[in-house]
């Protein structure tokens, strides 16, 4: 990673960097070197670092977070499949970066299992209340339905956020507890920027109240197109 980092510091043509499934998180020096490069590089627009075992050491996200605070060119960031559940500091560091970063437009946090620790959604929610650049966010496959506080925190963020256009919240088992859909629907009544809500495979149909809450929200907010019901 040292050599790649040194190259990225002076490269002025690469726009897409694909580093998924490389076990970068096994040694936090990897992310330290990459972070130093991203602070200087001004061309990379798409960064894919999914499935790199970030959970092994929270310093991995600390270094990336520091880079994202100063980098103003990355527009698409994929950090899915990194199992944030094991260490809430990971989401805390990312949240701190997202409060400052104003270039990321597409953020993929899917398959990180962070819903098992409600503090993770609290940190992310705090960031989304402030961030005004993210237009598309994917938080699918994170077990958010396991704890209704996850949806309380997300709802609070969506009531304030004015940048997200597309929200992917697939496979989170939201339908098992009707309060999850209640909190989400309350946010959708107020939010005026979300245009597409992807909610497939959440067992929403198991409870008529789930559909009722969502229906009431859509009567008030007719901008949103719900995909998956």
Question: How would you describe this structure to a colleague?
Answer:
With 229 residues, this protein is α/β, with parallel strands linked by helices. The chain has eight helices and eight strands. Strands 1-2-3-4-5-6-7-8 form an eight-stranded parallel sheet, with no helix packed on it. Helix 4 links the parallel strand 3 and strand 4. Helix 3 packs parallel to helix 4, helix 5 packs parallel to helix 6 and helix 6 runs parallel beside helix 7. The model has no long low-confidence stretch (mean pLDDT 95).
Low-confidence stretches: none
Give average pLDDT, whole number.
95
Topology pattern, helix = H, strand = E: HEHEHEHEHEHEHEHE
CATH H-level homologous superfamily name: Ribonuclease Inhibitor
In one word, what is the shape? elongated
Number of E-state strands: 8
The CATH top-level class label? Alpha Beta
**Fraction of residues in helix:** 40-55%
**First CA to last CA: what distance?**
44 Å
Question: How does the SSE layout of this entry go?
Answer:
Layout lengths: L1 H9 L5 E3 L9 H13 L5 E3 L10 H12 L5 E3 L9 H11 L7 E3 L9 H13 L5 E3 L9 H13 L5 E3 L9 H13 L5 E3 L9 H13 L4 E3 L2
Parallel strand pairs: 1-2, 2-3, 3-4, 4-5, 5-6, 6-7, 7-8
Helix pairs in contact: 1-2, 2-3, 3-4, 4-5, 5-6, 6-7, 7-8
Structure, briefly:
This protein has helices at residues 2-10, 28-40, 59-70, 88-98, 118-130, 148-160, 178-190, 208-220, and strands at 16-18, 46-48, 76-78, 106-108, 136-138, 166-168, 196-198, 225-227. With 229 residues, the chain is α/β, with parallel strands linked by helices.
């Amino acid at each position: 990673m040292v050599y790649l980092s040194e190259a990225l510091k002076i490269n002025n043509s690469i726009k897409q960097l694909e580093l998924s499934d490389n076990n970068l998180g096994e040694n936090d020096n990897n992310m330290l070197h990459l972070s130093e490069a991203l602070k200087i590089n001004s061309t990379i627009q798409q960064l894919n670092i999914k499935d790199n075992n970030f959970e092994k050491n929270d310093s991995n996200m600390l270094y990336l977070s520091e880079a994202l605070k100063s980098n103003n060119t990355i527009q698409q960031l994929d950090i899915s499949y990194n199992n944030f559940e094991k260490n809430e500091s990971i989401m805390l560091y990312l949240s701190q970066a997202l409060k400052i970063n104003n270039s990321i437009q597409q953020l993929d946090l899917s398959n990180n299992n962070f819903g098992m620790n409600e503090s993770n959604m609290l940190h992310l929610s705090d960031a989304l209340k402030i961030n005004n650049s993210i237009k598309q966010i994917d938080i699918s496959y994170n077990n958010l339905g396991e704890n209704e506080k996850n949806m309380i925190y997300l709802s609070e963020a969506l009531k304030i956020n004015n940048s997200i256009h597309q929200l992917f919240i697939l496979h989170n088992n939201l339908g098992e507890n009707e309060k999850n859909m209640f909190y989400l629907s309350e946010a959708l009544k107020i939010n005026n920027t979300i245009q597409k809500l992807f909610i497939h495979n959440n067992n929403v149909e198991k409870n008529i109240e789930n559909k009722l809450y969502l229906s009431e929200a859509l009567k008030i907010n007719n901008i949103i197109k719900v995909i998956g019901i």
